[in-house]
Amino acid sequence: MAARPKKKARAGYMISAVAELYKLHPQTLRLYERVGLLKPSRSQGNTRLYTDSDLERLEVILTLTREMGVNLAGIEIILNMREKMLEMQRQIEEFMRFVQEELARGFVAAQKQPTRDALVRVGPPRAIRVHK
């Protein structure tokens, strides 16, 4: 793959620059947009502007088509599954943070609360002799 410019694009890259950078015909980028694989933003003059995240998505598309021979319908399915997996990962991480916070809160509360407030009082430990 061609190396992207290091500078983060705020406004985005024009279609001609993206086509040249990735050795594509601009019609290919328009096709990807028409079938819903890419969704570049538009300038006030209605010019397509591709952001860094659009270029990352394009790189995935090109890897799937050029190196793996996946057709456009397959790419759509793969990209949708990829987005769902990323969302699930985000939700799992959020849930793990919640569980860790709750466990920490419970541990701190348990340390502060004396055992005399327990529901069942437990006496001091005693040794028990076992006969064999």
Number of helices, where a helix is a run of at least 4 consecutive DSSP H or I residues:
4
Describe the largest sheet.
3 strands, antiparallel
Strand content: 5-15%
Tally of extended strands?
A: 3
Please identify the top-level CATH class of the domain at 13-83. Mainly Alpha
Give the helices and strands as they follow along the chain. Answer: EHHEEHH
Mean pLDDT: 86
Morphology? elongated
What is the structural class?
mainly alpha
Q: What attributes does this structure have?
A:
Multidrug-efflux Transporter Regulator, Chain: A, Domain 2; three-stranded antiparallel beta sheet; mainly alpha; 132 residues; 4 helices; single chain; elongated
Structural summary, described in words:
The structure is a single chain. With 132 residues, the chain is mainly α. The protein has a domain of 71 residues: Orthogonal Bundle (Multidrug-efflux Transporter Regulator, Chain: A, Domain 2). 55% of the residues lie in helices and 5% in strands. Strand 2 and strand 3 form a beta hairpin. The chain is elongated. The chain starts with 12 loop residues before the first strand and ends in a 20-residue tail after the last helix.
